[in-house]
Amino acid sequence: MNGRLFPIGWLKFLTGKRKIEHVRVFALGVKPEYQHTGVAAKFYVEHFDEAGRNRAHSGEMGWILEANKAMNRGMEAMGGRIVKRYRVYEKLLRPAQ
């Protein structure tokens, strides 16, 4: 589609969606008060089920910080593996005097 919906981009979308074999979970989060209640596990199950209905056979979970142990453990439990490490560094900037 190259970012274009008109004049025939919508047709390419409708015919091409049957070719999608790879999905990406961009963001998946649970409010702190609902963490460790099984809500995240239910999200994982829903993602797997939906991907199965739509012929996807592989996927990617992007941008999981190295310090996010729960998400990394969940991803590995589903058969995933870490291929990149994302870290956040912090440095205080002080104005010049």
Q: What this model shows, in words?
A:
By secondary structure, the chain is an alpha+beta fold. The protein has a two-stranded parallel sheet. The mean pLDDT is 80.
H/E topology pattern = HEHEH
**Range of helix content:** 25-40%
Secondary structural class: alpha+beta
Largest sheet: 2 strands, parallel
Cα(first) to Cα(last) distance is 54 Å
| Poorly predicted ranges | none
Spatial strand arrangement across the major sheet:
1-2
- The total of helices stands at 3
Question: Beta fraction of the residues?
Answer: 5-15%
Whole-number radius of gyration? 19 Å
Q: Which term fits the overall shape?
A: extended
Mean of the pLDDT scores?
Answer: 80
Summarize this structure briefly.
The protein is of the alpha+beta class and 97 residues long.
Write the layout of secondary structure elements.
Layout: H1 9-16, E1 22-25, H2 39-53, E2 58-61, H3 69-77
Parallel strand pairs: 1-2
